[in-house]
Fold this protein.
Amino acid sequence: MDALLEWSWLIIAFPLLGLLINLISTGYTRERMAGIVASMAAAASFGMALMVFAALLSRPPEARLVEVTLYQWAIVPPLTAEVGLRIDPLSIAMALIVTLVGTLIHVYSIGYMAGDPHIRRFFMFLNLFLASMLLLVLADNFLILFVGWELVGLCSYLLIGFWFETPYNAWAGRKAFIVNRIGDFGFTLGLLLLFWTFGTFRYGPIFEAAEHGAVEAGVATLITLLLFAGVTGKSAQIPLYVWLPDAMAGPTPVSALIHAATMVTAGVYLIARAHPLFELAPLTQGVITLVGAATALWAALIAIGQFDLKRVLAFSTISQLGYMVAAAGAGAVGAAIFHLGTHAFFKALLFLGAGSVIHALEHAHRHHPDASPFDPNDMRRMGGLARRMPITFWTFGIGAAALAGLPPLAGFWSKDEILAALGKAGGWTALAYGLLVAAAFLTAFYMTRQVAMIFAGAPRSAAAGHAHESPAVMTVPLMIFAFFSVGVGWINAPGLGALSAWLEPGYPPVFHPEQALLATLVALAGIGTAWAIYRPQAWPEGVEDPLRPALRGFFTALTRKLYVDELYDVLFVRPFERAARAVADVVEPYGIDGAVHAVARLVGSLASGVRRWSSGYVRQYGLSVLIGAVLLVFYILWMLR
Amino acid sequence: MVTLTHYLALSALLFGIGAVGFLIRRNALIIFMCVELMLNAAGLAFVAASRYRGLLEGQLTVFFVLTVAAAEVAVGLALMVAIFRTKRTTNVDELSGLRG
């Protein structure tokens, strides 16, 4: 079995192979094959991850750590940059989540993207993303993690702007990229400081040194705060979450895979991976917990006022990432990874369900166009889809219930574990706990609102009235995801605790019955409130949203995402643009061009003096050489005198 | 008795003839021959000094000079032929296209 672990790099290699095959077979195979090749590559990667998991499982808990060095990248003393893999319970748990969700979404994409003229490019990017994410997860040092971190960012950019013919999509990709750069600037500084402090990038020596107290608390605080700056970008936390809602411009499978299930959880993974460092910095942990909890509540609040069904899910993702970050910040790494796993399944399910709805509406609109401007994402123009798309309705409903935290679905167990972990602590953590409970209420509220707006009542547009269920290649992954959304919570349910036993042997999951009861009551209250407002009988004809008259101006603020984009626009974007304009109008023509032109004029005037000597007559050149030689001879004689 | 001075004087004379020829003649072929004359004058001085002092380096240098001269003539003559084909002249005063 141990020989198998040496081959664990195949987990990363399979998606790369899929990318390569699709790249070199361009023009030789049918475009439809691209999706099949990519899906098989993802499935092979999942199979390999399963085998490595089994090999690791057969070992005793204390021996479940294997480091595989693959390649020496650069050796510039004191820096030794090595490409190596760290196979341990955390990395393999992440790899299993990534490859399983990834494989299912690859299959779903075959149906969703069918007929797109650039489907091959799509699947190549998807395979590249999978490989990059696995590199990030399996790396055995911070440098390679950073390489994967940037590569998934690149794939995110490429896939958000996949339909770049629409300027908004290209803009959204740029926004995501630039906002992430801001966080990554801090991340890079953190990495440099880390290397400066420890003299290595490898996890093993760093964590060992950290546990032996070889680093001052102040330095550890600074390093972890800088790393957390990267997390706020990648995992969409306050203040850098603004890119994620716009990232929904990409195709829906991309939103499900990259912007819900995997890439955005990289920040949570980083905190979990580096938790020996974060535990040295209580200040950072407090900051992370509060930022996570505040993000959870803030994003859940904005989600209530959104009409684009993918944007609701985007804010929901930000909110749920807030839960994970808060838990990871409070040191409850097991709970954070558990919620990461369950969220990956039910949020992917919700996005794919949304994709199924969008797909159906676009299809119906093509055959039954109506005069008003058509937006397949607008929930105000849906309604009554439960009867027309029963599979999508039931699976979406299961996903929504799991997200709202109804027992015994997946989200209940994981959210409950986070709340239980935070609830027992005092001080600032208690505040975070309160924020998260409030966010749980809002979560149940906005999910019920969304389900009611899409599926309940009568159709509010011609397209919604003529929608049909999506093909099996899309509904089967939905059903598989629905199965996982129901079942995956049990892997860490109290009494079983398989995930905890795997990640942190000896620490069974925390479970307080009164806490679980409170969470369930909060979720039911949210669902009940939302249903009272949004049930078809209570919703008069022609009213855009029953909540608008009740909340008035505040509802408008919610639909405008609480004006955060506008605020950033005034505070950062416009001043920056003005500065850039000043550089273009003043520094460029007078400074740079001025200097270049002055040098050119200087050379020109010097040359016009010298050009007289360049007569073109060979004899004159010869005479110059001769005179020079004679002078040289006299000079040498004078020197030797 | 022929002393080193005689050789050096001959060398200087040849070099002078070459230099003056290089400066006053217009035919490119003659100019080449003058350059060869100067090279060989220098070679003569090397060989004479080498013999006088009993050292081999001077003679060795002449080998290099000869090799370089052969290469230079090969390139130079090829250039001359090419120039004559395009310009129909070997008069260097008419070949002043590089005037600044």
Observations:
- Strands of chain A lie at 66-76, 79-87.
- The two ends of chain A are 87 Å apart (CA to CA).
- Chain A has a mean pLDDT of 91.
